[in-house]
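Colleagues,

Please find the record for the two-part complex below.
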Amino acid sequence: MDQVTLSKPHDRLADALSDEMRAVDRLIRDRMVSEHAPRIPEITKHLVEAGGKRLRPMLTLAAAKLCGHQGDADVKLAATVEFIHTATLLHDDVVDESAQRRGRPTANLLWDNKSSVLVGDYLFARSFQLMTETGSMRVMEILSNASATISEGEVLQLTAAQDLKTTEEVYLQVVRGKTAALFAAACEVGGVISGAPEEQVDALRAYGDALGIAFQIADDLLDYVGDASSTGKNVGDDFRERKLTLPVIRAVALASEQERAFWQRTIEKGQQDEGDLDTAMELMRAHDTLEDTRLTAEAWARTAREALEVLPEHPLREMLSDLADYVVSRLS
Amino acid sequence: MDQVTLSKPHDRLADALSDEMRAVDRLIRDRMVSEHAPRIPEITKHLVEAGGKRLRPMLTLAAAKLCGHQGDADVKLAATVEFIHTATLLHDDVVDESAQRRGRPTANLLWDNKSSVLVGDYLFARSFQLMTETGSMRVMEILSNASATISEGEVLQLTAAQDLKTTEEVYLQVVRGKTAALFAAACEVGGVISGAPEEQVDALRAYGDALGIAFQIADDLLDYVGDASSTGKNVGDDFRERKLTLPVIRAVALASEQERAFWQRTIEKGQQDEGDLDTAMELMRAHDTLEDTRLTAEAWARTAREALEVLPEHPLREMLSDLADYVVSRLS
């Protein structure tokens, strides 16, 4: 397929890494199987086959290939990263009592909370086994640190929810936990197992971190400015769920006394009436926080692109760079 | 303190390892702290300070000391093992909707299911970070395999619950997941980080496995024959919760057609009337399965003791041997 029909950088990456991604999918299927607990693949199949964009394993594969990786550790780590991601989705489903995930009913509605918790634990354990097979202590450190950041971010999100005192700093920590920590680790381990120079490993990590932050800020912004038919979410879901994301945090910081009372009623107390979403949108527009948030996402995308400069010239490097643009392109 | 006042092998172990256990407790407190999510120690403190018997970290410390360990990896791994154990307790609480754990309200009643899942994940991640600090790939493999066995066992228990087709083999797999896998790994890593000969490492693993199985079978049997005031559980809780433990599995295997109908009604369908627990006890007595189960627990305790024979002579070896006796002594 040529690059005209494959215009999205994500699709071009998938095309450039198709052999490796097939090997990753095979490995994921093999390692989901439990000799002793046949229900496990029943649940994981549902999630893994729903597919998602497989962005995280592609980051690992792309980083490794870019750094001249030889062997099969890249495939193992790509599967590891997808297992960790899938495990966090399973645990999120329990946590959020969310009814939809990737447009399908969540595992915890089809089965139950018990299975979601335990099968998530199983996938964590499996990911852990897979990464030990690379024999790299440094990989273990990177992924264990990422796991700690992920769960800290999730707990932080829980405690920050509905709290108008939430700062941009706390928001950024939550975003790192939710998204950027695993993006950064996925890229970094790709460099590490390829024996890339430290400067390149650092650059890969910085790229993944900034890409993840840009991606999550864009996602949060799309909740207010997105097109429901393409995002699959309704406008204002986060408002209704009283989540403090960047455009709201900034609007609260700039609020007059009267506006503050509005945010206290709707977010802290959760007393929401018809028309409140419209008012919230007006306040964010009045303080320009939707536009400011877009600029922040774009700045992170730029940081991601710039990080790539120390890496060797390679078509994959261009695709990664384009990917950073792409995650924020939906905003303008 | 002399051995007369410290008659329980568990207390003698605690006394012999008191310096190391203090270091473990300090490390646990230090590593529970989350810079970003202050709610975490709030929840874990509750669990870790409730204390429990700290049996698993003592196994690691005893195994290491017995094999002449030098350094602080033993303390790190003992804390690792306790973190893994605490994380599984937090996730079990969600899973079982249990209202009591170690005589205190469970974390998920004091806080909520969300916190239990996420803080459990945090402790898993922390345990993982701690073990990487030992720098031993072999330790990583042992503990990742144990983690997989634990979660497989938990899922298996879920699917086997209320299923009269549950075999002794499935029961044993569940018991390995619930208890023996972590006991075995706790002992094994103590040997590994001490550079003990393979024969001794294998023996430590075999000891932990058999000790864990004896412990869990005894625990399940005490649910029927124990004294509520010392076990803290009501007689017949497992029956009411329709759990298939060894004495019931054996009674079902030996059941007449009429008896089978009784088990189907009470366990599979969950239709339990007054007097049904008495009938269940009668059936187990009639087929001698309570006594047979006791003999099985004792046989595993013997296996545990025998495994220790290849280890160096040492007072700690005697305490571990006595511990195997002790876990089944409550049964006679």
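Chain B has one domain: 9-329.

Comments are welcome before we finalize the supplementary table.
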